[in-house]
Amino acid sequence: MKYKVGDIIEYRTFGGELRKVKVEIKEEDVKNGRPGFDGTIIDMANKDNKILQDSVWGYDSQITRVIKSS
Question: What is the value of pTM for the model shown?
Answer without folding.
Answer: 0.85
